Amino acid sequence: MQAGTGAPDMALPWYGEESPQVSIIVLNFNKAHLTIACLKSIWAFTQGYRYEIIVVDNGSQLEDFKALSAFTGRYKLVRLGLNRFFGEGNNIGAETAAGEFVLFMNNDVIVTPNWLQPLMDAFNDHADCGVAGPKFVYPDNRLQECGAMLDDEGGALQIGQFQDSDSPRFNVGREVDYVSAAAALMRKTTFEDALGFDLLYEPAYYEDADLCLKVNRLGFKTYFVPESCVIHYANATTSDPTHGLQLNNILAINRDKFVGRWSGYLKTRRHDGGTTLPIMPPVIEGSERDGRPTAAVFTPFSIALEEDERFLLATAELLILKGYQVCLVLPEKYSYLRITKIAAILGLSLQGLSIATVQEFEAQPSVDVFVAMGNEITPSIKAMGRESFYYCRFPFLCAPDENDLRLEWMSKYQAIIVGSDFIREVVEKRCSEYSLPNRAVHVINPPAQMYPFGMGESRSRSIVSVGRFYSGERCEQQNRLIKAFRRLYESDAQAELHLLCSVGPKPQHREFLVECRRLAEDLPVYFHIDATHDLLEQVYKTASVYWHGAGFGVDAAAQPEQCEYFGVSVVDAMSAGLIPLVAGNGGPAHIVRHGWSGFCYESEAGLVDLTRKIFDYLGLMDEMRKNAHIRALDFSREAFVVRWQTLLS
């Protein structure tokens, strides 16, 4: 973080970083000229309350960042080395804030005289005020919105859009469903209680509507305040094609996610059962070193709801429970809000976990236990613990010019950990092929979530597949599963397929989802995007079969990297008594014992035929369901803890 100097005189009377009442958070992404104009307007027209400005540069190109950092003035500058997207960038800014209130502001906003006072007044005038937003106008003074209302399908009505901004009907304060986060004020504690902007909507859109409904569920309301007015250029960053985000299909996808979460509330306007969003725990608070044993876990990867995070964060929890002070080490910062949310979804308790960048962590004393995750045969970071363990996700080869340094780092690690027997085989083969030093290789699988299972339960002719819509290597092949299902459906009109999958923020993954939906248009195929634990449990309770597409059609000997590395979602489904059908390679082929706890298939025809046979004998499959459940217990959280404790001892 850095601070500008030489602030204009107009900023001095009310600007104060030591004890601000309001922290204004401005996100910059490759638009330094807009951010500078925004800052100048804030300095010129903000009065009545002490304030600070936090500019979060969200991974801008170096040229743009240089232009921004060269601009002198009273503001804090937080530099992120990559784009954390709209929500998480603002979450990081909010965690830096010292004010009682946080005000999120797009950098394409220009404030006008007396803009802040009325927003603050809303919290005095309304004891139930949780969020306050201004009147937004376009540069030509047409009205952009006076807050917004939501219909029961998640559609947004921007009140007064394109109308006369001076019309009396649009200059009356009112309660609204949400206000745009282009300028939205709330207490920092309220923002934290709602766990901030949600990673569900990355890279952008619907985060502000979702946040306002989360605040409403806490018992507060959102108010439009007409006495406060800002000029908003609107979409100055998101409409720029040079950022590569390709947001053409994101509104429809995120609206589906939003409605999936809030449909009950949108229809009834009540929160008692009106949302699938569980109550969230308090935000994780890191602790200073106090003499207890210390540990750290490092990942170079993005943190989302994936198999790797189960291993990483479950390891952190295990170490915390063993009395260690644990630090999560990352190349670039993530917010405590994000880690709290992911931990809660995974059923983990990480209170006390601290978060540091590699640069920050390297400045601290070494820890007792260090666990590093990587995607090459040798680690990408030096060992920084008295005991160090390297979790090899997959043994890709590193760049030749890094070999010597990586081998030196590897020599300081006590052991290699892998997530499956399949990866252990690949690691040992690569070590032999390239004459790498021998290291003990330990298998510690990511812990599966155990779902309720009962013998004799009535099961429908439903098929479930859980994963992510991902285009490229290690695609989970939902498109091929849909084609296989079409073949099955031709002879079994009662069959249905449920795809409970996440979709990443990159445009090619969203396009893959769109293509899968197109393939399934005339079929009973149900897409549950970013489904909750409760919905998974509900679907698992009645379905019969689990299909896993990763590795489908892959030559495992020639392209092991395209196989499924472990397959924790397979185990999740097996715990609930679903009969798994998996490709006969990679991690799942080591989990499923063909003909005892499920089946391995080699072709589309084989997948369809095996499914038909299961459906034909649904009433006689209880023994295999029990076997699947028993096998899943080998990968439970309890088994994960035992494996770790054995290694640590």
Structure in words:
With 649 residues, the chain is an alpha/beta fold. The chain folds into 3 domains: 2-252, Spore Coat Polysaccharide Biosynthesis Protein SpsA, Chain A (Alpha-Beta Complex), CATH 3.90.550; 294-446, Rossmann fold (3-Layer(aba) Sandwich), CATH 3.40.50.2000; 462-635, Glycogen Phosphorylase B (Rossmann fold, 3-Layer(aba) Sandwich). The protein contains 20 helices and 26 strands. The strands form 5 sheets. It has a 7-stranded parallel β-sheet with strand order 16-15-14-17-18-19-20. The longest helix has 19 residues, at 250-268. The radius of gyration is 26 Å and the shape is globular.
What are the key terms here?
single chain, 649 residues, alpha/beta, Spore Coat Polysaccharide Biosynthesis Protein SpsA, Chain A, Rossmann fold, 3 domains, seven-stranded parallel sheet, six-stranded mixed sheet, 20 helices, 26 strands, disordered N terminus, Nucleotide-diphossugar_trans, Glyco_trans_2-like, transferase
What's the arrangement of secondary structure elements?
Elements: E1 2-3, E2 22-28, H1 32-45, E3 51-58, H2 62-69, E4 76-80, H3 85-96, E5 101-106, E6 109-111, H4 116-125, E7 129-137, E8 143-145, E9 148-150, E10 156-158, E11 174-176, E12 183-187, H5 188-193, H6 207-217, E13 221-232, H7 250-268, E14 294-298, H8 307-321, E15 325-330, H9 336-345, E16 354-357, H10 358-362, E17 367-376, E18 385-396, H11 403-410, E19 415-418, H12 421-433, E20 441-443, E21 462-469, H13 478-489, E22 496-503, H14 507-519, E23 525-529, H15 533-542, E24 545-548, H16 568-575, E25 579-583, H17 586-591, E26 599-601, H18 604-616, H19 622-632, H20 637-648
Parallel strand pairs: 2-3, 2-5, 3-4, 7-13, 14-15, 14-17, 15-16, 17-18, 18-19, 19-20, 21-22, 21-24, 22-23, 24-25, 25-26
Antiparallel strand pairs: 1-4, 5-12, 6-13, 7-8, 9-10, 11-13
Helix pairs in contact: 1-2, 13-14, 13-18, 16-19
